[in-house]
């Protein structure tokens, strides 16, 4: 535990400022990505192609932020040669940036599917699955970023657990859509767009889980990638 | 250019060995991932569930390698505090590991689709698109790793260009599958498995392009993420 907050006690005030700066910028980028996911979901639900186009445009900013903040991470590594928890912090931020950027890509794909579905004339049936899973994963994005901001590993664990719930919801939604397609083959092209959008949202959940894993790594120094929830919980509860 | 091979001229022979070691291990992991992609493609084409199960099992090794090699990267950053091109090398390897790991996930998804398609009784129509795009992206994986091994930015650019070709092939294949589905709705569930597998293979191509971008960054020090092929070619050809 004593190492955990060491990056707040540097001899160099300037170094502290630099670390705080990349943290803040990453969280701002995260806020933007969360908004992209929510906007893409709304665009899909209301077949709002204007909003969908905005999401696609917004992805350019997400990409630019990733490159810019990651460059700052590299500069800090080169100039400050951080060790221990500072090194973990910078490396975690660099990896989280990559997950955020990919979430942005997925939001953009949802927006693209919204546009295509609109062109196809929409769907006679409502697509509540998109609303439901979209809201769910947007909440996970927010949770994973809050967990990072507060070094809150219990919240990080909750986010990872949510991902299992999303995967189940996704499976149920897909089966229902397949049934719908089979019953009314004229809807095949439209339902496919719903499926692509759902798949993208499900991946946003995967990336939120990745961020949660980075938070646990950051705080506990233990790698929890590719372990199951039970092992992850044991790591989080480990007091050593 | 003078900086490019500086990591081969260290005062510390031990440091050289460490850098060579993570490079070698990453390339070995890359070879395994390439094999996973090829095996998943073959399993899908021949509905070989035994081979598909092997691919799914093999993904655990891919995941373990990612964690292990990435830990070595962190240790090198902490102990050696590399600068300039050495720092870029270690950071690039860390990022390439992440792309390789995700390619492994996609290969595993292709294997899963192969199993599901087999359970559904296969498809009356051959799925040559899987063979074609599978071979194409496996070649891209190999090309991106060769480009890394030889610091060959021209080859890296070729890989990035191939990705555009794969995206076009993917679009054509998907349209043809939608048509097939509409003409024979009884095949919907089976064709969906082909679509998921194709989508996964297309993503393998995206990750190979990412690796190519990391190679260009490594050699030229210029970030070519999120730029179009023309800008990327200009960076590669820039003699400065």
UniProtKB/TrEMBL annotation, chains A, B:
Question: Can the keyword Cytoplasm be found in this entry's annotation?
Answer: yes
Q: Where is the PhoU domain?
A: 27-113, 130-215
Query: Which is a Pfam family this sequence falls into?
Result: PhoU
Keyword terms of this UniProt record: Cytoplasm, Phosphate transport, Transport
SUPFAM superfamilies noted in UniProt: PhoU-like
Keyword Cytoplasm on this protein? yes
Protein location: Cytoplasm
As for what it does, the entry says:
Plays a role in the regulation of phosphate uptake.
Similarity comment text for this entry: Belongs to the PhoU family.
NCBIfam families (UniProt xref): phoU_full (TIGR02135)
Subunit comment:
Homodimer.
Protein's name in the database: Phosphate-specific transport system accessory protein PhoU
């Amino acid at each position: 535990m004593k190492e955990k907050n060491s990056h707040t006690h540097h001899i160099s005030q300037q170094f502290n400022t630099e670390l705080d700066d990349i943290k803040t910028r990453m969280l701002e980028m995260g806020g933007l990505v969360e908004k992209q996911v929510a906007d893409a979901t709304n665009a899909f639900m209301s077949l709002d192609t204007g909003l969908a186009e905005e999401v696609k445009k917004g992805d350019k900013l997400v990409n630019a932020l990733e490159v810019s903040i990651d460059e700052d991470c590299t500069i800090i590594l080169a100039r400050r040669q951080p060790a221990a928890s500072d090194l973990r912090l910078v490396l975690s931020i660099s990896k989280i940036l990559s997950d955020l950027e990919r979430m942005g890509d997925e939001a953009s794909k949802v927006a693209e599917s919204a546009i295509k579905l609109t062109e196809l004339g929409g769907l006679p049936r409502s697509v509540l699955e998109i609303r439901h899973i979209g809201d769910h994963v947007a909440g996970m994005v927010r949770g994973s970023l809050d967990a990072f901001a507060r070094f809150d590993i219990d919240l990080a664990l909750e986010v990872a657990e949510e991902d299992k719930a999303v995967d189940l919801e996704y499976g149920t939604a897909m089966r229902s859509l397949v049934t719908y397609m089979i019953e009314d083959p004229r809807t095949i092209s439209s339902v496919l767009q719903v499926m692509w959008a759902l798949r993208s949202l499900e991946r946003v959940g995967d990336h939120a889980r990745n961020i949660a894993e980075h938070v646990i790594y950051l705080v506990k120094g233990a790698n929890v990638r590719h372990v199951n929830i039970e092992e992850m919980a044991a790591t989080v509860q480990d007091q050593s």
